């Protein structure tokens, strides 16, 4: 069984990975728009797949964070804030995919 400090550290690591995937999703989205403006259909298709993959990875990490928080990492009051933070960041990645 993981100690509480290790659980919390693991949650923070997963949250950092989620933030990274969200950031990479948005960077790929920006590149996609640039290629679109250059009328580069092949690059657009490849970048669209990259955006979808990054957003999917962010979703997987979001669910992992939710699971870890439900297992008791952090105090209950903080869990809700962390849950909302990850949820909001995931919405950002989702908007990147929806554009």
pLDDT < 50 stretches: none
Could you tell me the number of beta strands? Answer: 0
**Biggest β-sheet strands, sense, barrel:** none
Secondary structure class reads: mainly alpha
Number of DSSP helical runs: 3
**Percentage of residues in strands:** under 5%
Mean pLDDT: 93
- Distance between the amino and carboxyl termini: 42 Å
**Amount of helix:** over 70%
* Count of the domains: 1
Query: SSE string, helix = H, strand = E?
Result: HHH
- Indicate the overall shape: elongated
Based on CA atoms alone, the radius of gyration comes out at 16 Å
Overview of the structural elements:
With 99 residues, this protein is mostly helical. Helix content is 88%, strand content 0%. It has three helices and no strands. It has helices at residues 4-37, 41-70, 76-98. The longest helix is centred in the first third of the chain and has 34 residues, at 4-37. It is elongated, with a radius of gyration of 16 Å. The model has no long low-confidence stretch (mean pLDDT 93).
Topology readout:
Layout (H helix, E strand, L loop, with lengths): L3 H34 L3 H30 L5 H23 L1
Helix pairs in contact: 1-2, 1-3, 2-3
How would you briefly describe this protein structure?
With 99 residues, the protein is mainly alpha-helical. Helices cover 88% and strands 0% of the residues.
Essential attributes:
3 helices; 99 residues; elongated; single chain; mainly alpha
